[in-house]
Specification:
The protein is of the alpha+beta class and 294 residues long. Helix content is 19%, strand content 28%. The protein contains seven helices and 14 strands. Strands 1, 2, 5, 6, 7, 8, 9, 10, 11, 12, 13 and 14 form a twelve-stranded mixed sheet that branches. It has a two-stranded antiparallel sheet with strand order 3-4. A hairpin with a 5-residue loop joins strand 11 and strand 12 (257-260). Helix 2 (77-88) crosses helix 4. The two termini are 30 Å apart. InterPro entries: Cro/C1-type_HTH (IPR001387), Lambda_DNA-bd_dom_sf (IPR010982), LexA-like (IPR039418), LexA/Signal_pep-like_sf (IPR036286), Peptidase_S24_S26A/B/C (IPR015927). Keywords: DNA-binding, Transcription, Transcription regulation.
Length: 294
């Protein structure tokens, strides 16, 4: 966490006491693709591991040529399941996902379209890297992911702490505490694909409607604490006094900081933090991705 000052260069992190413990680069620009489905694993306080119910992950909101391309025709049920896996794991770019499996981007495209079928070594890679249940992959029956997905040797997953505070996408809420109750597992490749430093990520729940349509009430935000230098027009989580806010930030010519809501037209006016009171505001991190409730 970092206090805003005239230098704007001092980095800091959100410090959460261990005694209270209990998840697209340049994302959140308006417009863009429909959200992709998401899968994760919650690590409860008693260390019991359970699967997160299907939700929605928004890795970004930028419109680009890829989003405007004509949809692919998937020819086989197996191809559809392979495509569903990549969507469920955050819809990583095909090149990134293929590399994690040890195959080429073209080969992965052929598998997902149903032009070719993967051999046993590729099926094993899905299991070892992402914990995919091979029986489901071949038949479509049962769960997509193995119950022991988190203990699969070689699974490149990172557990992101989910903190029991609600970041106010509105006027700012006073958190009950900064207690961590759970954690959510993401593939390291996915976190890197959204421009995040995996070890610096946390998850917070948004509360309020001021950032609609970008951030719905109750969405879970992936926040990278290493990104504490404010970049104009990007979404950040701020601690303002005892409260927490989620806003789009811009530096003004006079050195003050402007915090804007995407839902400004519905009664959420912009706020200006003058330089002389900027010490009351600190940066927790940049919001890079969203998980929406099912």
């Amino acid at each position: 966490m970092r206090a805003i000052s005239s230098s704007r260069r001092r980095s800091a992190r959100l410090i959460l006491p261990p005694s209270e413990t209990r998840c697209i680069k340049d994302s959140f620009q308006k417009g863009g693709p429909e959200p992709a489905s998401f899968f994760g694993v919650i690590n409860s306080a008693n260390t019991e591991r359970i699967k997160v119910k299907s939700g929605i992950c928004k890795p970004g909101f930028c419109i680009n040529a890829k989003n405007l391309a004509r949809p692919e025709i998937i020819k086989t049920p197996l191809g559809q399941r392979l495509r569903d896996i990549r969507k469920t794991l955050g819809d990583q770019p095909r090149e990134v996902f293929a590399k994690s499996l040890g195959i080429s981007e073209k080969t992965l495209g052929n598998y997902e379209r149903g032009d070719n079928e993967p051999d046993a070594s590729v099926l094993l890679a899905y299991k070892e890297v992402y914990g995919v249940d091979v029986s489901w992959l071949l038949t479509g029956d049962g769960p997509m992911f193995s119950e022991s997905a988190m203990s699969v040797p070689g699974a490149d997953l990172v557990e992101i702490p989910l903190y029991d505070v609600q970041a106010a996408a509105g006027s700012g809420l006073i958190p009950k505490d900064d207690g961590q109750h759970n954690s959510v597992a993401f593939s390291r490749a996915f976190l890197r694909s959204i421009g995040a430093k995996p070890e610096s990520c946390i998850m917070l729940e948004a509360k309020g409607e001021s950032m609609l349509p970008t951030i719905p009430d109750g969405a879970f935000m992936i926040v990278d604490q290493s990104k504490s230098d404010i970049v104009d027009d990007q979404v950040f989580v701020f601690r303002v006094g005892p409260g927490i806010k989620v806003k789009r930030a811009n530096w003004r010519m006079d050195g003050s900081l402007e915090l804007r809501s995407d839902n400004e037209q519905n009664g959420y006016p912009k706020e200006v933090i003058d330089e002389d009171v900027a010490d009351d505001l600190s940066v927790i991190g940049q919001v890079l991705s969203l998980l929406r409730r099912a």
